[in-house]
Specification:
With about 200 residues, the chain is of the alpha+beta class. The chain is built from six helices and seven strands; from the N terminus they run αβααββαααββββ. The strands form three sheets. It has a three-stranded antiparallel beta sheet with strand order 1-3-2. It has a two-stranded antiparallel ribbon with strand order 4-5.
Length: about 200
């Protein structure tokens, strides 16, 4: 029998790892001195135990994207980077620095652009030739956002007819898509407790 856990997350408390959080730390560290150099340890100290290798890989990706510049260092000195571009919303990037829009990004943009919508509207608006978004994917994303409190039902669904929603004004939080995450953790049934840090990754698309 599968175990289903309800995890409680404090509202407004950021998840102190992942690319979005790393970028927020970088912006904060360089807010008063735009030419300040940053290092992996600078960012690692602000996280909840993120892997330094993951942070280093992220900085290298930003450098390939032209957002950071790696600075010359003496032999044996820790690598240092400087911010050369400061986008408020960091786009999703491939390891080689290319912008890679996701299905969730496209669906969220469509939701923000529609006064009212159903799953078919969002699937159609978010689909491109290179990245189709299925009706099932759009429906699952909409239902997750509805359960999280982002959406209001305008018209309930009926057999053969999808429910119609609208985005709540207060939940139109910005251009970055709310992410549906899959969490990996260790659960000890003897103590009924989660042990160690939980790792979360985005559910595609």
């Amino acid at each position: 029998m599968s175990i289903v856990l309800a995890l409680k997350v404090d509202p407004g408390v950021p998840i102190r790892r992942g690319s979005a959080y790393f970028w927020r730390v970088i912006r904060d560290l360089t807010e008063t001195d735009r030419d300040a150099a940053i290092t992996v340890p600078d960012i690692h100290r602000q996280t909840a135990g993120a892997d330094p290798a993951t942070i280093r890989s992220f900085l290298q990706t930003l450098a390939r994207a032209g957002i950071l510049e790696e600075l010359p260092t003496a032999r044996g000195q820790a690598a240092r980077w400087r911010v050369v571009r400061r986008p408020t919303h960091l786009p999703r990037l491939s390891r080689d620095g290319r912008v890679v829009p996701s299905g969730q990004d496209a669906m969220w943009t469509a939701i923000r652009n529609h006064a009212e919508f159903d799953a078919r509207d969002i699937a159609h608006s978010a689909t491109t030739e290179e990245r189709p978004v299925s009706l099932a994917t759009a429906l699952a994303y909409i239902q997750r956002l509805h359960h999280a409190g982002y959406l209001k039902v305008q018209r309930a669904g009926t057999p053969g007819q999808h429910a119609v929603y609208r985005l709540k004004r207060a939940m139109n939080t910005g251009p970055a898509a709310p992410m549906i995450l899959r969490t990996k953790l260790v659960y000890d049934p003897n103590t009924h407790a989660v042990v160690g840090a939980a790792e979360a990754e985005e559910v595609a698309p």
